[in-house]
Structure formats: structure tokens, C-alpha cells
Amino acid sequence: MTYQHKWIDGSPVDLPVGKVVCVGRNYAEHARELGNEVPTEPVLFMKPATALCSLDAPLVIPRNQGAVHHEVEMVVLIGAPLRDASEEDAKKAIVGYGIGLDLTLRDVQDRLKAGGLPWERAKAFDGSAPVSGMIDARGVSTRQNLDVMLDVNDAVRQYGHTGQMLFPTFPLVAEISRHFTLMPGDLVFTGTPKGVGPLEVGDRLAIRLGNFLVTRTEVV
Ligand code: ZN
Q1: How many A from CA of 87 to the centre of ligand 1?
Q2: Is the distance from CB of 212 to CB of 133 less than 8 angstroms?
């Protein structure tokens, strides 16, 4: 299965597929629900391009590795190289907004964290970054007041809005670019609001960004 970035209408985005940079604990209430400190600088980690898959397809989750948690997150698509960027450069380089799930093997992550070991087994596995089609950034005016929501089987499971982010989108992307050069086709997952929990086979998901992007899938 080959992943390709798409616009919300299903047409391909004319960009390569790159890395995924994720921010952990970007919503204070989510940091607290997992017993973590609220950070003073963004907690950054990465997923490789092989983690990406489309939310338009049924969602395949790993078996026999303990709980697979959903983390619903606003996703931004980078369209120009960014290194040591200003907030203004970051704003100009973002070409699309979407919604995604930062799938997490929570039991594996807890074990690795307890051992002081890296998280990749829990966060960067194949298919760990399902994403929606992208909305053209030019059509998104209020980036810091967008609902980020996940319904599971018609009940709200996660709800937050981007105004609650500890590190808002443009400063966050600028900060990332001071450590990892962002390239056209890279994605940034901007963190999850509270309410993370396990997915089960058969769960029906509705994933929303603001009032203009809803995508539905089922866990298989
Ligand atoms: Zn996350």
C-alpha cells in the first residue's frame, strides 16, 4: 500500500511524502491524564514515511501488542523547506491542514518509558499515522480556534480545540525547524487533547477538524 498526500476532494497533492514530526503533551489536560509534567519546551518525536496511511481506508491496528490508543491531532502539511525559520516563514510554508491519529501502543510505550528507552516501537510502526485529506491552507482562517474531535461509536471520546495548544502552530513549526529541517511533503502532528484511550476492532470512528473536515473509518 503506497501512501500519497491528497486534498480533501481526493485529488493528489503534488508533493513527495516525507517524515512526520509529532509533538507530545501539547495540551495541558492530556499531559496530566497520562501523569506527565506540563512541558516548558515542545516534546518532539518522529515517525517515518512508512507510518503514513489514509483515513479513507479501514483502520488496521496492531494485534497482540497490548492497548492501541487513539490520539486525534490537527496535522499540517509543509510545502517549502524550513530551517531555523521565523513564525512568519512557518506560516507561509504551511500549505494544508488535516486531521490524523497518532496511534500509540500504550503498554509498549509505558514499558519503554519505565526503562528510559526510546519510544519508536510504540509510536513509529507501519500504519501508526493515519491521516485525512488536506484542506488548502488558504481556506483556513482561524487556525487557533479549531475543534479537534474524535467520536467512537457515536459518542464523543476526545474533544479539544487548537486554542488550547501550549505551543501554537506557527511558533511550534518554527521551533521544530531549529532542530530538524522540514522539507516539502513533511507533516507535523500538533498534539492531542485529553481523552485518549484504546481502540477495539469494530469501532466506528468520526474524526473532525473545525466545522469543515469530517472523516469516518472503522477499525479492523
Ligand atoms: Zn500524539
Answers
A1: 22
A2: no
Separation of CA 156 and ligand 1 centre (Å)? 18
Q: Tell if the pTM clears 0.85, that is, is over it.
A: yes
Cα–ligand 1 centroid distance for 30 (angstroms): 10
Domains and CATH numbers, the chain: 20-218 (3.90.850.10)
Residue 141: the pLDDT is 74
Q: What is the pLDDT at residue 153?
A: 98
